[in-house]
Amino acid sequence: MSDRVREINTKIESIPDVKLVKPFEQGEFDINGSIFIFIEGLEQPLKFDVSILPQYPFRSHNTETIKFYNEELLEYKHIMGNGSICIHTAHSPMLSEKLDYDIASVKSWIRKYYINKDIDIHYEHLIVPQKPYKDRHYAFFFNEVDYIFTKNQFGFVDYSIINNGIFYIEKITSNILQTYYDRNKKLLTDVKWNFQLKALNKSSGLFIFIKEAPSHNHRWVFNNWDEFAALLPQNFLNFLHTTQESYQKDTGKQLPLFVGYNISETEIHWQVVMLEIGNFPIYGERVNKQWLTFLDGSKAVFWAMTRNCSYKYFFGRGRLNEKITNGKILIIGIGAIGSVVAKTLLRSGCTKIDFIDFDVKEPENVCRSEYNFFSGITNKTDDLINQFCLISPFFEPTIGGYNYSEAFDFLLKSHLTDTTIKSDIEKRLNEYDLVFDCSADNDLLYALSQLNINSTLLNLSISNHAKQLVCASERNRYEFITTQFNGSVLKFDIDDLYNPTGCWSPTFKASYNDINALVQFAIKHINLRFERDKALRNFVIENDDSDCLTFKPKEF
Amino acid sequence: MDKSLHLETVIRTHQITKEKQLLEKHIQKKNEVKEALQENFGCNIYSPFNSGSYAKNTAINTKFDFDLVSPFKRNAFGSNGTLKEMYEAVYDFLFDKYKIEAEVKKQKVSIGLEFYPDSVGDRIKIDVVPGREFNQDQYKDDENLNLYVYYKYGNFAADSERIKTNVQMQINNIKDRADKEKDSIRKIIRLLKVWKNTKYNYPTKSFFIELITIKAIDNSDITGKLWDKLKTVLEYIRDHVNNEGFTLKDPGNSSNDLADTLTDNDKQQLANDMKNMLERIEENDENIKTYFPENPKFKEEDKNKNKYGTNGGMPIPPPKLNFGLEK
Which of A419, A480, A534 sits opposite B117 (nearest CB)? Predict the structure, then answer.
């Protein structure tokens, strides 16, 4: 017996209310044994077969490397399909200490779910086996729609492939659900995604809303079609039959079936079954001189993966304050500062973002802004719109683009005294809740200060070496910025500028990290102001790297 | 940098007389509205009079409007007529008369007339404040008026649809004091208005600024040059406006507390703004230009700055020092 096995046996025996039923022995890979665990409230101790993996006490792939099995507990919460308890315990590099934690965790599970039969408030997804269908996995992303499905409603869907990738070591095709139609292919509702996703080529699938989860104990998804027998109405089986007939020329190809059910009173979840045309789980039988369609229960169900990508889940892990995310936003100037602001807003839940910038992206811009090398020389607005469509399915640009940007700059600067054009520009800008001017264009700054705009207008610029970030948010933004940068207020190096080869217009020196650190700090400050419902004030963030790096915000 | 000198320049560039044309347009339009009211309401109305910052000599030229107090007789709308009926009657009259040429809107105690921009883009704003004497024919003796409160502001007049006040006493309060303090009060009030105008929708009303300035001066040792005096007022506001029990009595009716026109958050924000302003100016004199900018329209040229021939050398254009967009 190895020292490790001996230590496990000795430790287990020393834990109160735990008894060794079958001492631990070294298997081919794992160390296996059986134990009784008793806690107050149990009539009898519960028996668990225990496997300890070689990595123990370390976790592997975010899961514990000790398993406690009891197949008789399958009906309880947080039990995996193989009968193991789902536990997550604290880290310890000491085997003995980790065993203490893990046994305590099993005891806690017994109290909570076996004895008290607690029900968790949050929804727990069904356990769906992740097996490839034919040569690959399939994943389908759906979004909540403004439509109420009724029980047993069925019809067609459109979906689009968004990517072919690799799922660990196997192929995977990811798709988005696009549209729901009724059985006569009349539009029921459209799924909202960004305009590039909506423009993808579409393929057909089927859907049925069965209302109840296709599962046992609300945990394990059905394995065979016979388990569906009570849930699928006869007219749906007939629909499967006619559909298969009409798709005869595509025999052998897959046809996804979206199976919908409620996970709360208002929320729907969809699982997808991969059907093969020509091999649907149905058969026909003549009954009383009439052909009827029956479910072929012997066939296995091939489940694909699904993900609810609706806004609240997509941005569920963190987003900016609603006053920002719900707002319509315009970013003028999408260079080193503006592109970082734009991408941060996008990833933080903003959807309605427009850009104004008449510049083109050059390879040397890539190192400190949110552009890719791969797209070469192209208009910044077009490049960023393309990129943002790849990031957020909810991105909704409305205006922008090169022509709009040129017109905006020309009209504003050349017609500032023309009351009609000025008023038109004001009207357009007032459609935005937030306008970020990141152009560092002092002429534009002046021109904008002459307009009567109700939108929150923020001007962001930085000094050389990203020593300071200046954010103007008040009516006096022109005086504020010109005063800060007049040479007597903010102190920074004005000589060590970067002179691009072949260009005599020097620019500031600062890395992506330098700029991003300041911009993120500024956005956090702005967000906090919104969160606390406080008025925005002009502010300067200065970094002090004389000793340990610090950022000092100063409000005006 | 001489901060007091800068502040004097700021006041000069904000003198209302510099906007002669606009001022004359306001006066002309004010007289027109006044005559229209008198003609329409006849013997039921006393002579409307100007009560705003222009009357108090505290106006600035970047943002000004005229307040036209319109005192009505007690029985102007019947012996049982209500203040609401008075307010609505004045609104209806002004709306009918000016709806084509102005936006007519109901405001807290007044009816706002915002005339659409004329051919040179000037906008004239006149607020008509209807008020009613307490008892029939008493106004000429005591000048007391009841104003109708269209909607409540902060805690002010929270329990009532009316505000009792004496507008003439409000005007005199500033005018009398300003003369005694050799114009310091007026200058500080104007500077605070310039500062307020650097913000969007600041909740403090001009009347609040006037009263708090007078209170600060009454309760502090005001000496030195203009900046020293202004600084003392700013410090007073910073230290007191958010204190429990801080009041600002309306000289027209001591039971009106103007401090109640601000919420607790507003007061906290005001105190913070004063604190930030004092700290930033303390850190660097130049920052005073941000808080108290000259009116660019009448900016006075710095005679020593960037002139050809200065110091006998070539003029150097100022460099661009703020960045953000890649080039």
Answer: A419
